[in-house]
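Schema walkthrough. Field components (list of strings):
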Amino acid sequence: MQQFRTTCRFPLVWALLFLVSAAAFAESGVYQSRAAFLREALGSPEPTSAVIWMQKEMQATAKEILGHPYDGLRVRYWYEGDRSAWILDEIGKEKPITMGIVVDNGEVTMLRVLQFRESRGWEIRYPFFTRQFSGLTLTEKGALNKSIDGITGATLSVRAAARSANLALYLDEQRKQRLSAR
Amino acid sequence: MRTLTPYLAFAALLSATPLYAQTPDIDEIWAVVQRQQQEIVQLKQHLAKADLQLAEARLEIDATGNYLETVDTSTARAATTIGGYGELHYNNLDAEDSAQDLDEIDFHRFVLFFGHEFSDRVNFFSELELEHSLAGDGQPGEVELEQAYLDFKLTDSLSAKTGLFLLPVGTLNETHEPPTFYGVERNSVENVIIPSTWWEAGAALNGHFANGLSWDLAAHSGLAMPVSGGSAFRVRSGRQKVAEALASDPAYTLRVRYSGVPGLDLAASYQYQSDPSQLAGDGLDSGQLFAFNASYTTGPFALKGLYARWNFDGVAVEMAGADTQTGWYIEPSYRFSAANGDWGIYARHEDIDGARLQDRYRQAEVGLNYWPLDNVVLKIDVRQRDHAFASEAGRDFTGFDVGMGYQF
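Field assembly_structure (string):
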């Protein structure tokens, strides 16, 4: 009886039960589809694509950038002239964040969070955060040329975004080196 | 004259040709050409075969790569997750009254996180902690369940949770992994005034907007503060830790937060305790907590601050002079990268006015954090505490702390 009385004093509990039942029809955490990102990045939902194989030296550099090996044998990218688009997964605290990054002439021109699965750090998917990635380039040492301002309580998600931008710039550099060597 | 010309030409040719050269006849040349032609045909056949094999190998590699791209490793590995953090503290405090000296080493917190993703929208999260290394009868430590809740993603910007969760108040109650804050010990405001780590059971809603504004609203179990004895009206002693907790008088917490500018975080929390002792007629009738925190980081510089205040109603709490309890701190810091990691220096000033006389003091500290890696930290600091009342002067101290912490 005591427990029942207590539950009645929690109007939020009832509201939550209603909302939770509606959750089965809610959207998942996909904020932008791959096709929509590519259309925004390169003007076509299916632009020309190619792959770059993660050879030994590249894996070593990717590990330096990410702090762990890249989880894959190759990376697919889409391109139009000097502009390339990359879709990369990187773990923030526990779960992978899927990011779309556009590099044009060695400079990040756009970063979008396509899917976010973490419980904290939702801020990183909004323009007020992602716009600071525009204009990022690599220094001679292969690091980002400027620091990214963080979000309190979402440090790990912010770092994941910065690492992904760094990797996309590096991969674009490798792509261009291979093209010029042909 | 015309008839002599071929002979003269032949004679000239003989004179220009070395005597040792053997000119092959036409049959020999034809045979060589035939053999070479045969070899060319064979080489062409080999080349065509090699081209075919290379094309097939490329197709096979592409097919393998294409298949691997379809394997969604991101969700496979995220179903059940394990994480954790821990911190070891060494405290060396020299008090005015030597009986209050502290020279102690303690593995203060060893924490494991377990999470499970039931679906894209339903997640479970938990935090299990062993405090002070050793738990059991007569031992200094405790095993505590600090979080265990189900989180339901209702829409992209609205979620609900129910279970045992951390309250949305203060700067470190929800985010308290050692690499995320300065100082070996946590700040005192979030010990005396906001009793972090502070968890309760109930239900909560969280929503956010694209401009960086967010809100949390929770209905949850309340405090059960003692109204007599040495810890009378001490907020920290009121935590029931959801262990067969009295639930007759719930509490409600609301937080509004703005994080729409990278580096900036502003938050205001309000909590209403319908009866913070869970007992009617004992002179502690209700309580309200107001907390404001702000932080701003630009490049290597950061400034963080927190103000928290309790207002309690009731005859007994007013007579004890504990009806208002306040605390604040301010913390400037500077973090920079070096060859082998990041370094951070900070200073913190705190002013605490809690229920017990020993909880009314000012504390100043400066210290150093070193992160060899983002998730690993070594810390050292010096601090000085001065109590407000002469009767507590023996507790005044100066000292230093050394610690290490990690998260994964």
